[in-house]
Amino acid sequence: AADRRANPGDAGHPGARTPLGRTRDDPSRRAAAGAAESEQRPGLVPGALSRPTPGQPDEPAGGALVPLPPTDAVGDDVPADGDTADDLASGGLPRDRHRVSTFSLEGRAVPALYLIGWVGSVMGLAILLVSFMAAGSDVARWLFLGGVAVLGVGVVAGAGSQAVERGRRADLPYRGPSPVLAFVAAIALTLVLIVVVLAPLAALGLDATTPAATTLSLVLTTFAYVAVVRLLVVGPGALSWHDMGVSRPDATALRELLVGAALAVPAVVVTILLGVVLASFLERTPSPLPSSDDAVGLLFNLVSAAVIAPVGEELFFRGFATTAWARSLGAAAPAIVRGAMFFSVAHVLTLFDASFAVGAQRALFSFLALLPVGIALGWVFLTRRSLYAAIGLHGTFNAIQVVLAFLVAGAVGG
Q: Which of 14, 118, 405, 407 is the most exposed place for a label (fewest CB within 10 A)?
């Protein structure tokens, strides 16, 4: 009796009792029970609410509940091998517990958003397939518009879910959506905007093949790029505008524009020489801009190619995509090359030809011809850390080609 009074809480005493009159369990049994409970409750993160304090007793007098000491049992609340305290302190799961199945909702931060992404993408693609099969009928265009809208919702939801999931990963250098997935979302949004805006104007007599219509189309495309970056990248905090080289227009911005413009001259020379070589065995790609035979058409083409397109494309392909890949890969060179290839592929997607053989040659010609300027744009952006320098290079590069094409067309026509 004296021994029991002297050691009322001795864990090794088989008859030891707590102040509540319950038989005290062995700590290892309690750890195993906690692990089993964690496995039965997928949403329970062991140790999420409290962490063990070194030297803390198993149970203080009065029966207060305290965290169990670290054990080797599965499900304990100490970081696993390779995890850091920041993984738990930041509210996220350890790295190994972020591994979730592609086709599973279990463990998702926002399962509803992930489900909408998959369902919307699959349904949108199915509706688009039906619209292609019904080509020529009156309902085909409405099916196409509906399919693009549903696909857009699905892709945006999927990119948003990916941004949320990656945002929980403290070990990732870039915690935002994939640039490729964001690009698909931007394309879907662009198609919807073009149909909604240009279709009524076409009914009122606007010719979709004129330079003015092309300028309006590029305005909508640029709006889609900015909207996607703002919603899926800046909104969740993956990257800030400053991270992407965006700053207020001032004297420094003007200087960067001029630096980029000066670098456009050698880029044009290299592209022309490469085009001559490629044209010897590949079909040359026609200009994506409509032909202009007067000063008004030339002005619209210059605004489209030298102002609107460079702003939207450089924000997306350099400011967003190249920055994201530079962080993910940890090096500038592979990010520049990947961004240049992404830039070239995006321009290839705008090519449509009746013949597959001719279309394949033109696609390859366009892809290879744009690689040098794409690499130059990425190098200038990462070297100077200014989006204005890339915009200046891109805009001047396009302007020189538009003016040369106009002069050549006038000389041939004359």
A: 14
Count the residues in the chain. Answer: 414
Give, for all 414 residues of the chain, the pLDDT tens digit.
444 444 444 444 444 444 433 444 555 555 555 544 444 444 334 433 334 444 444 444 444 444 444 444 434 444 444 444 444 444 444 444 556 677 778 878 888 888 999 999 999 999 999 988 888 787 888 888 888 889 989 998 988 888 888 888 888 899 999 999 999 999 989 988 988 888 888 888 888 888 889 999 999 999 999 999 999 999 989 999 999 999 999 999 999 999 999 999 999 999 999 999 999 999 888 888 888 878 888 999 999 999 999 999 999 999 999 999 999 999 999 999 999 999 999 998 877 665 777 888 888 999 999 999 999 999 999 999 999 999 999 999 999 999 998 888 776 655
List of residues 6+ apart from 89 with CB closer than 8 A? none
Distance of CA 156 to the CA centre of its chain: 10
3-state DSSP assignment of residue 23: strand
In the block, residue with structure tokens 């001032």: 250
The backbone torsions φ and ψ at residue 17, rounded to the nearest 5 degrees and listed phi first, read -130, 150
Give dist(CA 101, CA 107) in Å, integer. Answer: 9
Phi/psi-derived region of residue 56, left when phi > 0, alpha when psi is between -120 and 50, beta in every other case = beta
CA angle 248, 313, 365 (to 5 degrees): 150
Dihedral sign for Cα 263, 268, 274, 278, please: positive
CA distance 261 to 193: 31
| pTM of the predicted model as reported, rounded to 2 decimal places | 0.73
- For residue 250, the 8-state DSSP code is S
CB proximity list for 99: less than 8 A, separation 6 or greater? none
Backbone angles phi and psi of 10, in degrees to 5: -65, 120
Q: HSE on the CB side for 89, CA within 13 Å?
A: 5
Residues with Cβ within 8 Å of 60's Cβ and at least 6 positions away in sequence, in order, are: 66
